[in-house]
Design goal:
By secondary structure, the chain is an alpha/beta fold. 37% of the residues lie in helices and 14% in strands. It has helices at residues 4-7, 37-50, 58-71, 82-92, 108-114, 160-170, 221-230, 252-263, 265-283, 311-314, 318-327, 346-349, 358-364, 378-393, 395-401; strands at residues 27-28, 75-79, 98-102, 119-123, 145-151, 174-177, 185-186, 189-190, 197-201, 214-218, 289-291, 305-309, 330-331, 367-370. Strands 2-10-9-6-5-3-4 form a seven-stranded mixed beta sheet, with helices on both faces.
């Protein structure tokens, strides 16, 4: 974290220079939160002394139990990462053929299907929620459709009721990519217990992390047993393989980090909420900038600071703002640019998919994510917002000062 007195001249409207960035130390979106390091290292030392480092050791078992209690589900299978978790849940749910998913998501959601020879059919999103639009799903259902995957983007729950109704009406399994949504709720019930299964990400960039990892959570006994088998090569006891599988297990060191992170979960969320409120205050009234908000009647983790940039209203493009922020050592991100449908192999398979995804196309050109988390102070937030304000008030001068070409600024 930078020393605020040395890093800026004027918090309200800083002077932007390419040779002297506003921040000496780069601020990243998703810089890892670290809990009590002494407790973490004590757990790691204990695992080393025990010499039980993987194969569902005691820390993994404890983490699974703690997550079940926190989320309110019957089963949790901790895995090495959320992508493997999605692949396991997809296979355990018997999906094949075509599966309906949003394109406005991290590409792993689509890859988890395509990797197994399943065709992702991209559905547009609701521009107000950024989540898959239930009203546009049924027209995509064909005889080859075997399931639906919703994504709780930014931790804001999908319209689970509408998706469940469609799932029930057509007899289709319903899964949720809940990578963003650990610690969040829908209608005051914790996300994790909806659909046939949900998958959390505990990657280092998430507010709650296990270094690298994830979990499949479900109330379905049979599905949980299948996922558990598949995550350990299909072993059901010593030398007894009864199912095709892979190696999806979480190791003890990752679980130790998860348990330590759980102990600081309330602190992490509190800092995220504080930063979110600070961004709201400082960005209020800046033309063309709209900030994604959260339903205060639900539980939220506030781990994403998401802006929509309306170039016609603010006079500067989202991409130009990204370049200006990068020049000041603020590594803003363009989530989920350019959309899965415009990435390979999907853009080659479906070159005209964008015609059916107007809201996704629009969002992918407008969304900007900013740093938050325990590595970001309120002073940092104030300065980031001041940079944005300067860039919008004086786009040409700001771009020139940051060494950005005039073409990039519009």
């Amino acid at each position: 974290m930078v020393d605020s007195k040395e890093s800026r001249t004027d918090t309200e409207r800083p002077v932007l220079r390419a040779d002297r960035p506003a921040f000496r130390e780069t601020l990243h979106v998703g810089r890892p939160n670290i809990g009590d390091m002494e407790r973490l290292l004590a757990r790691v030392e204990d695992a080393l002394e025990r010499r039980w480092l993987t194969n569902r050791g005691p820390y993994v078992q404890e983490l699974e139990q703690r997550i079940c209690e926190y989320v309110g589900v019957k089963h949790c299978i901790a895995v090495c990462n959320a992508t493997i978790g999605l692949e396991l849940a997809i296979r355990a749910a018997g999906l094949g053929g075509e599966v309906i998913v949003p394109s406005f998501t991290f590409v792993a959601t689509a890859h988890a299907l395509q990797w197994q020879g399943i065709t992702p059919v991209f559905c547009d999103v609701d521009p107000a929620t950024h989540n898959i639009d239930p009203a546009k799903i049924e027209r995509l259902i064909t005889p080859r459709t075997t399931g639906i995957i919703g994504v709780h983007v930014w931790g804001r729950a999908c319209n689970i009721k509408a998706l469940s109704d469609i799932s029930d009406r057509h007899g289709l399994p319903l899964l949720f990519d809940a990578a963003h949504a650990f610690g969040c709720s829908y209608r005051r019930k914790m996300i994790g217990g909806f659909g046939d299964a949900e998958v959390f990400s505990f990657h280092a960039t998430k507010f709650f992390n296990t270094f690298e990892g994830g979990a499949v959570v479900t109330n379905d006994d049979e599905l949980a047993e299948t996922v558990s088998l598949m995550s350990n090569f299909g072993f059901a006891g010593l030398d007894n393989v009864i199912y095709i599988g892979t190696n999806g297990k979480m190791c003890e060191v990752s679980a130790a980090m998860g348990l330590t992170s759980l102990e600081s979960l309330d602190e992490f969320i509190s800092v995220n909420r504080r930063n979110h409120q600070a961004y709201q205050r400082h960005l209020d009234g800046i033309a063309g900038v709209t900030m994604v908000t959260f339903d205060e009647g639900e539980r939220n983790n506030y781990q994403y600071i998401v802006l929509e940039i309306d170039e016609s209203a603010c006079g500067v493009s989202r991409d130009a703002l990204v370049e200006i922020l990068h020049a000041q050592n603020v590594r803003a991100r363009r989530y989920f640019y350019p959309g899965c449908h415009r990435m390979e192999p999907y853009r080659s398979y479906y070159p005209n998919a964008g015609l059916l995804l107007p809201e996704t196309e629009c969002l992918s050109e407008r969304v900007l994510c900013l740093p938050t988390g325990t590595a970001v102070s309120e002073d940092d937030v104030a300065l980031i917002c001041a940079i944005i304000g300067t860039a919008i008030e004086h786009p040409g001068a700001a771009s020139a000062a940051c060494g950005i070409s005039e073409d990039s600024a519009t």
